[in-house]
């Protein structure tokens, strides 16, 4: 904006109700203006009093003026959560760019939901503060779902919540949590806020919600009673979503044009990256691959990233890896060792997640395969290795110097062990020494710089998946000798004790493993039938399992990592993937829970049996009742295709027909029964 020159004056007064005076040259020196000192235009802001130029700064506290003057003369400032925003506005007002940067850095380091809400909702700003608001918005988008309290929701306006719910960038691992946020916000002040809930519900991504959740938990919610038209629109969108999924599944080329926003997934803040492994295809069985896959928890799809993420071997070829490790340290993903075309390797690479560029780092001192690897104390740590002859060698990698150094050796040589970090301690769990599967667990204390034995596993195991969550260590499946395990054990470091939790849906080993939020993903692996493509999800807080989206082809001995951050995630996801409708999934309590049936349906084709009717690829979702040994009756198989539930028991046929009829009648009443509506039920389900 145009600004006055003040070359003719020697002093400037920054005036509110009180006045502070500074030298024109001092202010000019601190500002980033090359030609002339910037002062805001307008006679109401700049006047002359007793021969001095006075810059009016309405709304600023005297304490803020004092901090501005202190910075002008000393380049120092005393920032705290209470004055930072106003000091930033003052710095912006006077073009003190260095002070602006200090304020932005302070705000970023001390972010919380309350301060972010205060920044984005402040109405009377001296100047627009886009950088500050962007930082606040990014923090809200990333954290409001998982960190909001009643206090922060009470301070949030309808406008702010609407913008959050509308945003593609809202970090919601499950869309159900967005509806929960709306209800919690409304319950903070029901009398004033209840009327806004139906309109907020229309901003939800209906396609990312289970059909029954929308039909009963949202459309029938008491907070929706004030707006029947909004409730009916949600019911209609619910039907539309199933119809589009059905048509796209059975006849993909029949639908063109843009996908409605309510069917699109939000942008991911976390992605699963799966690298390498041994794959099984009709042309090749157990072949080591260089491929990289990405899984988006929002669209529930596996796909190839839009940028090249395969590990380069040379200018033309890529490394084909199995039994390697992925370790994330800051903004860098490290690929360590493994079998490169079947040969144990010393090579290590790193991927800069900000630039998505690969580079090679210093190699191991020794070849390593099936070793343990983790990050601790800003360094990488690897331990154990080997096929038939295990090693006790330990190495540390320092990213700053690009060097590997030898650490204290293990108490027992081992390979194929699980390795995790908990606080300042590293645990190496199970594994194999020669042909003997181990149940022993070693702990490395960084302060004492030595390994000690802690409580042993309840079952010896090797080639198991291992991860830390909420201070506990979980180890899944693996092998004991030649027997595949489906048991899961949890270690409590405080009490030094292992205990069993809910077993895996099927017995397998060599799974890739990673964690997003409270969910641990076990990807692929190998079982008695060979490599598998099934993905199982363990919900830590609820101690239960659900079925994930299977891999395109069976894969074992791969490595997985969770990539976090909206910026890097959006670089990896193509526009084609973002514009596709989300794959609707079932409520968790309706997902596969029986281990043998889950494995059968997920990995095998039984075209000669009645079970071939249950085709995973052509169903919206499917599930089984939990099996009970005490139940003498034949177990029921449920399939939900489009909007109806069918039961394969003859005695239920009449009930299901009546239910189907009543549901159809109810849905027609909700929509209004308009036969001329271009979104009628007959069109939705392709009926003549």
From TrEMBL:
InterPro entries: BACK, BTB/POZ_dom, Gal_Oxase/kelch_b-propeller, Kelch-typ_b-propeller, Kelch_1, SKP1/BTB/POZ_sf. Residues 84-219 form the BACK domain. Residues 648-688 are annotated as: Disordered. Keywords: Kelch repeat, Repeat. It comes from the Eukaryota. GO terms for molecular function: actin binding. Coiled coil: none annotated. Gene3D superfamilies: 1.25.40.420, Kelch-type beta propeller, Potassium Channel Kv1.1, Chain A. Residues 659-673 have a biased composition (Low complexity). PANTHER family: KELCH-LIKE PROTEIN 22, LD33804P. This is BACK domain-containing protein.
């Amino acid at each position: 904006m145009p600004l006055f020159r003040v070359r003719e004056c020697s002093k400037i007064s920054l005036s509110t109700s009180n006045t502070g005076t500074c030298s024109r040259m001092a202010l000019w020196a601190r500002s980033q203006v090359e030609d002339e000192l910037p002062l805001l235009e307008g006679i109401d802001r700049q006047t002359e009093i007793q021969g001095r130029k006075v810059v009016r700064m309405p709304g600023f506290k005297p304490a803020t003026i004092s901090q501005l003057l202190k910075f002008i003369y000393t380049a120092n400032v005393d920032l705290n959560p209470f004055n930072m925003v106003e000091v930033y506005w003052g710095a912006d007002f006077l073009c003190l760019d260095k002070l602006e940067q200090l304020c932005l850095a302070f705000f970023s380091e001390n972010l919380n939901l309350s301060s972010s809400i205060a920044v984005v909702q402040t109405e009377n700003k001296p100047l627009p503060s886009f950088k500050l608001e962007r930082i606040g918005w990014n923090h809200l988008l990333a954290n409001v779902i998982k960190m909001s309290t009643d206090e922060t929701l009470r301070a949030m306006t309808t406008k702010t919540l609407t913008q959050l719910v509308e945003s593609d960038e809202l970090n919601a691992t499950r869309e159900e949590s967005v509806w929960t946020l709306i209800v919690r916000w409304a319950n903070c002040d029901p009398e004033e806020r209840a009327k806004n809930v139906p309109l907020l519900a229309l901003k939800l991504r209906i396609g990312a919600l289970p059909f029954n959740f929308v039909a009963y938990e949202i459309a029938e919610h008491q907070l929706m009673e004030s707006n029947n038209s909004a409730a009916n629109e949600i019911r209609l969108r619910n039907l539309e979503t199933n119809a589009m999924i059905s048509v796209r599944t059975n006849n993909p080329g029949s639908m063109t044009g843009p996908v409605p926003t309510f069917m699109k997934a939000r942008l991911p803040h976390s992605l699963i990256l799966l690298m390498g492994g041994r794959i099984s295809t009709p042309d090749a069985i157990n072949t080591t691959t260089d491929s990289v896959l990405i899984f988006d928890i929002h669209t529930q799809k596996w796909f190839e990233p839009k940028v090249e993420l395969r590990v380069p071997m040379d200018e033309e070829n890529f490394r084909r890896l199995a039994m390697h490790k992925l370790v994330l340290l800051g903004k860098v993903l490290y690929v360590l060792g493994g079998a490169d075309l079947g040969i144990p390797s010393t090579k290590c690479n790193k991927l800069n997640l900000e630039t998505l560029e690969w580079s090679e780092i210093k190699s191991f001192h020794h070849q390593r395969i099936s070793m343990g690897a983790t990050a601790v104390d800003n360094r990488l740590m690897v331990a154990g290795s080997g096929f038939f002859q295990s090693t006790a060698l330990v190495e540390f990698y320092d990213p700053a110097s690009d060097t590997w150094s030898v650490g204290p050796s293990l108490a027992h040589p081992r390979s194929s062990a699980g390795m995790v970090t908990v606080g300042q301690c590293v645990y190496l769990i199970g594994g194999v020494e020669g042909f003997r599967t181990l149940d022993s667990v070693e702990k490395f204390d960084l302060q004492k710089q030595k390994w000690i034995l802690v409580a042993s596993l309840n079952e010896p195991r090797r080639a198991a998946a291992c991860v830390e969550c909420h201070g506990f260590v979980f180890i899944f499946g693996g092998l004991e000798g030649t027997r595949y395990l489906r048991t899961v054990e949890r270690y409590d470091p405080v009490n030094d004790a292992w205990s069993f939790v809910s077993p895996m849906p099927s017995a397998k080993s060599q799974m890739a493993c990673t964690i997003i939020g409270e969910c641990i993903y076990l990807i692929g692996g190998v079982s008695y039938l060979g490599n598998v493509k099934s993905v199982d999800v363990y919900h830590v807080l609820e101690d239960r399992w659900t079925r994930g989206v299977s891999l395109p082809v069976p894969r074992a001995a791969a490595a997985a990592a969770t990539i976090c951050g909206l910026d890097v995630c959006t670089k990896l996801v193509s526009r084609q993937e973002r514009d596709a409708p989300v794959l609707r999934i079932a409520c968790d309590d309706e997902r596969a829970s029986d281990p043998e049936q889950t494995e059968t349906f997920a990995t095998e084709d039984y075209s000669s049996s009645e079970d071939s009717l249950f085709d995973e690829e052509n169903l919206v979702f499917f599930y089984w009742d939990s099996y009970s040994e005490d139940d003498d009756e034949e177990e029921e198989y449920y399939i939900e295709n489009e909007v109806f539930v069918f039961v394969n028991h003859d005695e239920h046929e009449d009930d299901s027909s009546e239910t189907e009829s009543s549901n159809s009648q109810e849905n027609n009443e909700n929509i209004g029964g308009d036969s001329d509506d271009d979104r009628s039920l007959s069109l939705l389900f392709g009926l003549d």
